[in-house]
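User: Continuing from earlier, I have the next pair ready.

Assistant: Great, send them over.

User: Here they are, in order.

Assistant: Folding the first of the pair now:
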Amino acid sequence: MLCYFYYSKKYKKHYLSFYHGDKLDYPELIQDGRKKFKILLIDADEDLPLEFILSLTEEIKRYIK
């Protein structure tokens, strides 16, 4: 698994959750008690940060076996 899209009841926002996110160090990502995943909250009123999401997926691919 690389990532998944879901809705957070806690933050009341959609988010992308990245597996091996614990290996990434970006202030936009939230660990929030997870061990292997970090999430990127998505603001419904703004455009998706596509370049950032694509760069995260490329970086995470290095950790997937």
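And the other member of the pair:
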Amino acid sequence: MNKTKLELPDYHRIALVLQGGGALGSYQAGVYEGLANAGIHPNWVAGISIGALNSAIIAGNAPKDRVQRLHDFWDTICSPAVFAQPWMPAQTHVQHDLLGSPGVPMASMLGDTGQSMFRSMAAMSALMNGQEGFFKPRFMAPGSGTPDQISFYDTTPLIATLEKFADFDRINSGETRVSLGVTNVATGNFVYFDSKTQTLTPKHFVASGSLPPGFAATEIDGEYYWDGGCVSNTPLEYVLGDPQRRDTLVFQVDVWSSQGALPIDILTVTERQKDIQYSSRTRTVTNAVHMMQRMRKVFYETLERIPAAVKAKDPWFDQMARHMLGARYNVIHLIYQNKRAEGHYKDFQFSAESMRQHWQTGLDDMDETIGYAPCLELPAEGENFVTFDIHTHKRTSSTQFRDAPVSDTKTVAKKATGARKAPARQTTARKQVVKKAVTPSSSRTPPRRAPK
């Protein structure tokens, strides 16, 4: 575990952006522990669904208490529902499994098959019994009436859990900005609850995780809201699109990977479909921002060509120049990588063992990121926007999206065509065509008239 404190560049904002993903959200808690160990404390957390719940615990506690409160929260909602014994390899203390063998988990002896079996049992327990302090089966489900009365589970226990582990006065104090993505049931629009503009209550956080048909809509001020993942599962675009542009370091933490193995049966089809649907095309968002930053730079370069005497007469030019290149953004992208034998139920499989595995994976990924300190530097002048993927160690800059200079046109063309030479006959024929095309009309031989 890396506990080296880092001296970051002078970022005005440090944002933690958390995807939705149910039980996979403990990966985000592990990432945050890695940040805290390095002395990095975000001043803006934005989340959807389980990411919103993690945001409540982070923003609702003092920095020194956040990791412990995250542990308390996850230990509560991952309490064993069927069996009291942890059987999976992630356990760090000696236990007895069903066969009475100390320190030898039964799932380990059975390999992937054993892990898959016990994970499916934990998922079935969640479906049948709910999770402690999170949700419970609704009586006479799914019910009817208003949207907040129709679902298979009741999330009322979550209100008390959030109030227990998060201080909502602190959340609304302005110390840490909190943004939550939700879907308006009536309009279908993507909406954000933001502590900068309104007072947040536990119901706002529950609304962000009200994924139908399992969970009912949450009613707030006469409007009904579902999980933000119904429209988009990441609030990255909201953070990057904030009108008050400031130098920003973003830790984008995804729990769904858009890339994965081809499915081989109906169960892996379901798992792959979830991965694709909820990965939210984060790279599509960052690529769009790259292009937007490139357009900003082109606009700025255009302003630079305007004579100084003209710009001096109108303050609009200076205002636009500051707006175009007034901030730099660095997005660090961490993605949970699927483990073997997790299954299509991985997002509602709340066993304590899987929770610890996800948590440790997040901590390891964050430690690896911290170990590559250059990725945290401010983008260089003229770059404005960079992204870094810790899993590929690939860094992408907005300057890579710029058009090639005129002098480099031939080089680009050669790269595009593989620099292959055309056959000699084709080259000769092409020259003849070009020669005919550039011959002045006065020197051409007049066409012969048809005989009368």
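Worth noting for the second one:
Confidence is low (pLDDT under 50) at residues 81-107, 401-452. DSSP finds 15 helices and twelve strands in the chain.
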